[in-house]
User: Which sequence fits this backbone?
């Protein structure tokens, strides 16, 4: 009898053909994200789960699924999954690194430009009919912050951080970086985090959310940022203290922020970030281009196909589950 694989959201049918040939695919009947508090009976006998970053695969959920052999997430980040709980049971976890680097770097730069040049405010101003003949243009009308020639500090120098650095080079920016394990990248000066915060006109976050990075930009570190700086986060919520960020914007210590990710998603209606005019907000769309999302789904399905056919996943987030296993065919 072939394995049953649970798919938490509809995926393009034509991409599913190869996997459907070797296992039974069971599509979630409901819309709610998968979680241990909301565990549908239809997943209990499944050997694999193909999920999104909104599905919460915690230790309780893993414990409730004795048949589970693999999880394949259509995301590069795996902070929605208890990786240790999977690894303890030798359950392989697939993810999708590489294919969303450029799309995410593009969005980080788009937020940087929008925050610097007040595009959100300007758009709202025009739409609200506030742009009139008597205020159509003046020397100090909608002044923003220069990007060209400014200093950009990149927190995290993985593939996305490096891709943002390449974009910054085109704007003649000086680029500083901080990475937990210092990484030499041409044209980028690696510095301690405090030095990066004190000297950067723009700071962009590109680290994964882990126990080590949770709260990395807390109130104390935000207070170390250069006066009038702009903070960009396209990595994960929880890395930046949102309340401290809102206070720094209110006091004028920071000029603006561009955010794609939040402590809780969707952003809570009570968030002070919603009302600050200099915050440009996006709804976690860093990887949201048609080609990128297709590549992510393809990569996740390749991981699932490998698992179903007893091969090692090509993009495995916990490769230690394969230690001692025979090499892939
Ligand atoms: C990921 O894959 O982790 C991204 O956040 C999706 O945009």
Assistant:
């Amino acid at each position: 009898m072939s394995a049953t694989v649970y798919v938490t959201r509809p995926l393009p049918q034509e991409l599913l053909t190869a996997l459907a040939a070797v296992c039974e695919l069971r599509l979630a009947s409901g819309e709610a994200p998968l979680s241990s508090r909301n565990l549908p009976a239809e997943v209990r006998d499944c050997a694999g789960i193909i999920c999104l970053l909104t599905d919460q695969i915690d230790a309780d959920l893993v414990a409730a699924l004795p048949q589970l052999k693999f999880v394949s997430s259509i995301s590069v980040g795996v902070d929605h999954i208890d990786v240790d709980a999977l690894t303890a049971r030798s359950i392989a976890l697939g993810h999708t690194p590489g294919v969303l680097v450029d799309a995410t770097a593009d969005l980080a730069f788009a937020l940087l430009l929008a925050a610097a040049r007040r595009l959100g405010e300007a758009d709202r101003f025009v739409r609200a009919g506030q742009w009139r003949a008597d205020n159509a243009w003046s020397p100090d009308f909608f002044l923003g912050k220069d990007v060209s020639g400014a200093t950009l500090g990149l927190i995290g120098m993985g593939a996305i951080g490096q891709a943002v650095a390449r974009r910054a080079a085109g704007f003649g920016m000086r680029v500083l970086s901080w990475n937990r394990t210092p990484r030499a990248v041409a044209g980028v000066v690696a510095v301690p985090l405090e030095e990066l915060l004190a000297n950067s006109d723009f700071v962009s976050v590109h680290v994964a959310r882990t126990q080590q990075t949770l709260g990395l930009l807390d109130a104390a570190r935000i207070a170390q940022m250069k006066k009038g700086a702009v903070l960009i986060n396209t990595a994960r919520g929880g890395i930046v203290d949102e309340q401290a960020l809102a206070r720094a914007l209110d006091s004028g210590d920071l000029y603006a922020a561009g955010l794609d990710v939040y402590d809780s998603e969707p952003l809570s209606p009570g968030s002070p970030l919603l009302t600050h005019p200099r915050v440009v907000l996006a709804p976690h769309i860093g990887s949201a281009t048609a080609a990128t999302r297709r590549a992510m789904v393809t990569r996740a399905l390749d991981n699932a196909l490998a698992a179903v056919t007893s091969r090692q996943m090509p993009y495995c987030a916990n490769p230690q589950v394969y230690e001692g296993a025979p090499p892939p065919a």
